[in-house]
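ok trying this again, last paste got cut off
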Amino acid sequence: MKRLFTLFAMLCAMALTTGCAVNRATASLTPGTDLTQVKTAYVVKQPKDTHGLDNLIAANLEKRGYTVTRGPELATPYPADVSFTYVDKWMWDITMYLLELTINVRDPKTGFPMATGNSLHTSLTRKSPPEMVDEVLDNIFKAPKK
């Protein structure tokens, strides 16, 4: 009976700890999208972003050779080949960390999504915000064309 209880306790402990090590990194392109033609980009700053993710995205794009401008959401077409929007989700686990980041590449005239990338890292697999931005953009630019 004591062995059965010990085995049950170990299984419960393993089940409770495995849920913390989740990560996901995906990207997809809208059919007909060709990002190799993109030279300029506009990064839309989210009004509630207090972590400067727009700056990280812009710096990463500049490192990749793009001419980047950034600013608030505009009512008129963006002065670039594409615009980038993002949604960030932060979580508290002893310290604040970026749990999930989704970046959308949009047509600057219509706002139609041309590509989407997402990265999710829970507490045990967490990455820094620059690493998350790099992972999402890498996946977007390497996504297979449809």
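PB: full thing came through this time. The chain has three helices and six strands.
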